[in-house]
Design goal:
3 helices, disordered N terminus, mainly beta, 14-stranded antiparallel β-sheet, 297 residues
């Protein structure tokens, strides 16, 4: 598929995903502190003068992160990121949802991890899903743009039918619920939003063969335009859990990809897929149950 066609379809996808979003339901603070708190070294965190752009820095002393003030159960979550430029080998920027603020042993988790690389080599975007503390559902893609040159949106659609990872309104991964019997679909624990930047040069670039070059530090990733149209969790059990089907993100149109979305999804799988655990029969001689599900259905 020609790249111009890809971006034309992306515009249609944006309308399809977001047409029925109620603006009153969207959280989007102009200030970082409206939605998040800083984790880790506070001096590694900064904001623009108007509070609209937030940055996390990694040095050889420490990294940094943030966590949402609220936790959610199903919905649409989106953030714009601009990743570390230049030689970012060994550096990982993580943007994810997790049910436990201490990555507990029984946590559920839905991950984006951006794996840095040497100058001129493409970033890899790794997605993963955890259920009750067990992951191992990694998929890796290249991107069709330079994620260090400008801000791009990275979104998660989460309902009881599927999890969709969406980049600039292009679905790059679909993770299905196996007819509600799958023990590996996160649908029982509310989750916070997190991000962090950290040194992972033991594995992140060329399997750990290329290490972080600290002469390029500090490594900085920046964020803006957080939105969450979701069921806000209120202990012990929010009323919205019983009415999620009243929201666009839990209605029939969000249970599967539209025809236009499938065109982009197929293009990504044919041209940008680097690794899929469902193809790794050495690692999984018996493939996990969800690998038999058709993401195109």
């Amino acid at each position: 598929m020609a790249m111009s066609t890809l971006f034309s379809i992306a515009v249609l996808m944006a309308a399809s995903f977001l047409l029925s979003v109620s603006k009153a339901q969207i959280s989007s603070g102009s200030s970082f502190y409206h939605d998040f708190i800083v984790n880790g070294a506070v001096n590694q965190f900064s904001t623009s003068s108007d509070g609209a752009i937030w940055s996390l820095a990694l040095t050889n002393a420490t990294g940094c992160g943030f966590a949402s003030n609220e936790k959610y159960m199903f919905g649409w979550f989106s953030m714009k990121l601009k990743l570390v430029g230049g030689d970012s080998a060994g550096v990982v920027t993580a943007y994810y949802m997790c049910s436990d603020d201490n990555t507990g042993a029984t946590r559920d988790e839905v991950d984006y991890e951006f794996l840095g690389n040497t100058t001129g080599q493409p970033y890899l975007i790794q997605t993963n899903v955890y259920k009750n503390g067990t992951g191992g559902r990694e998929v890796r893609h290249q991107l069709w743009f330079d994620p260090t040159a400008d801000f791009h949106s990275y979104s998660i659609l989460w309902n009881d039918h599927q999890i969709v990872f969406v980049v600039d309104n292009v679905a790059i991964r679909v993770y299905k619920n196996a007819n509600y019997t799958n023990n590996f679909f996160p649908n029982t624990q509310p989750m916070y939003i997190f991000s962090s930047i950290w040194n992972a040069d033991s594995w992140a670039t060329d399997g750990g063969l290329v290490h972080t070059n600290w002469s390029y530090a500090p490594f900085v990733s920046s964020y803006t335009a957080f939105t969450a149209d979701a069921c806000l969790w209120v202990d012990p059990y929010p009323a919205c859990i019983n009415t999620t089907s009243q929201n666009w993100w839990d209605q029939y149109g969000a249970w599967h990809l539209s025809e236009d979305q499938l065109l982009d999804y197929g293009w990504v799988q044919r041209n940008l897929l680097v690794y899929d655990y469902c193809d790794d029969t050495v690692r999984y001689p018996i493939l996990p149950e969800e690998c038999s599900l058709d993401p195109y259905s």
